[in-house]
Specification:
Layout: H1 5-29, H2 31-57, H3 63-85, H4 87-116, H5 123-142, H6 150-175
Helix pairs in contact: 1-2, 1-6, 2-3, 2-4, 2-6, 3-4, 4-5
Amino acid sequence: MLTTPYTRSTFWSIFLGVLLLIAGLIAIALPPIAGIAASVFFGWLLLIAGIAHLVYAWSERGAGAVIWQVLIGVVYVIAALYMLVVPVAGMVTLTLVLAFYIVVSGIFELVVFARLRRLRGAFWFLVDGLVSLLLAGLIFFHWPWSSLWFIGTLVGISLLLSGIARITVPLSLRAA
C-alpha cells in the first residue's frame, strides 16, 4: 500500500476521533466527574485571564483605566479561585449561568423565527427556541441538582460529536 500524507493524516484523525468518542461516552456515563473537570478547566482559564488583566493594567494610561483593569483582573482571579478551590460549587454556578444563557438564546431564536417565519427553514428557529426554553426550564426547575448531570452531559455530547466528525470526514474522503 502506498503511503501518502493523506493516509497518515487519516489515521491520526480517526485515532483522535476514537479517543474523543471514548471520552465523550465516559463523560456521558459519569457526568458529575466530567462537570467537575469542566469547572476546574474553566477555573484555570479564568485565572489566566485574570492574571492577563492584571499584567495589562500596568500598560494602561491614566489612574482610572488602571483601576478598572485591576478590578476586572481581581474579579476574574476571585472567580477562578472559587472554581478551583470548590469545583462542585463552581459547577453549580456554571450550570446556573449556562441556564440563563440558554434562556436568552432561546428568546433570541424565537425573535429570529418571528422575523423570518415566512422563509423556508425558519421553522427550525422556532424549534431551536422552544427546545432551548424547555431545556433551560428543566435546568432551573431541578437546580441545583441539575448541576450533577448538565455540564458533564453537555461536555460528553460535544466530545462525542467531535469524535464522530473526526472519524466520518476522513473515511468519506478515503471512500471518494
